[in-house]
Automatic annotation (TrEMBL):
All copies of domain Response regulatory, residue ranges: 14-130
Pfam family membership, one: GerE
GO MF entry, a single one: DNA binding
PROSITE patterns: HTH_LUXR_1, HTH_LUXR_2, RESPONSE_REGULATORY
Residue ranges annotated for the HTH luxR-type domain, each copy included: 154-219
Leader sequence segment: none
GO biological process, one term: regulation of DNA-templated transcription
Name of protein: DNA-binding response regulator
Keyword field: DNA-binding, Phosphoprotein, Transcription, Transcription regulation
Gene3D superfamilies the UniProt entry points to: 3.40.50.2300
């Protein structure tokens, strides 16, 4: 559990909820209403209602669903933080995909938890982000770590191409023949064919189409 600062002790945390499922909102009311030091200031069914409601009252912490009709959570977060930078945003969603986690955190969310989380984690997350810290559900934090390690492993496994191989790759991507590439580089066709073979071996492919596709995926060419 995150310790409260002396400044926050005794203060009531105002909560707003943005979710398009009435059952979710009802469930959150059931959990949060009796919780000590927490007050629900408003509930909204979509992004438009949320932005309108924030003009009247700004919560300390906003529980924000990502997938809502109209403007989604990852769309409205930009507007919210520009207009109300003091609001702490806690993404509360069914999306456990690393892409969504990274997107929301990059956009400025202070935390990310799942709707399937336990009551204790929800309350801890609210109090943590209110105190100015970040909170990611433990299960999702492990997932982020695994994804980061996998990305580093992929980077370390990426093939190293020589300057000449990169030039040949660019021309292959431009659909030039080996002879046309040879003429541009002032080398023999045999030399270009050797570079082409080396590229296919390094990238583990068997033809030019697959070679270009993999090269683009790895960021070796534009």
């Amino acid at each position: 559990m995150t310790e409260k600062t002396s400044e926050n002790i005794g203060r009531v945390i105002k909560i707003a909820i943005a979710d398009d499922h009435p059952l979710v909102i009802d469930g959150l009311h059931h959990i949060l209403t009796p919780a000590t030091g927490i007050e629900i200031a408003g509930s909204y069914a979509n992004g438009r209602e949320l932005l309108h409601g924030l003009t009247y009252i700004q919560p300390d912490v906003l529980l924000l669903d990502i997938q809502m009709p109209g403007q989604t959570g990852d769309e409205v977060i930009d507007q919210i933080l520009i207009q109300y930078p003091s609001i702490k945003i806690l993404a509360l969603t069914n999306q456990d995909n690393v892409y969504y986690i990274k997107t929301m955190l990059r956009k400025g969310a202070n935390g990310y938890i799942l709707k399937t989380t336990r009551k204790e984690i929800l309350l801890d997350a609210i109090r943590t982000v209110y105190a100015g810290e970040h909170y990611i559900e433990p299960l999702l934090k492990d997932k982020l770590i695994r994804d980061t390690l996998q990305a580093k492993k992929q980077i370390s496994a990426d093939p190293i191409l020589s300057r000449r191989e990169k030039e040949v790759m660019q021309y292959i991507a431009a659909d030039l023949t080996s002879q046309e590439i040879a003429d541009k580089l002032f080398v023999s066709k045999r030399t270009v064919d050797n570079h082409r073979l080396s590229l296919m071996m390094k990238l583990g492919v068997k033809n030019a189409a697959a070679l270009v596709k993999v090269a683009i995926q790895l960021g070796l060419i534009d």
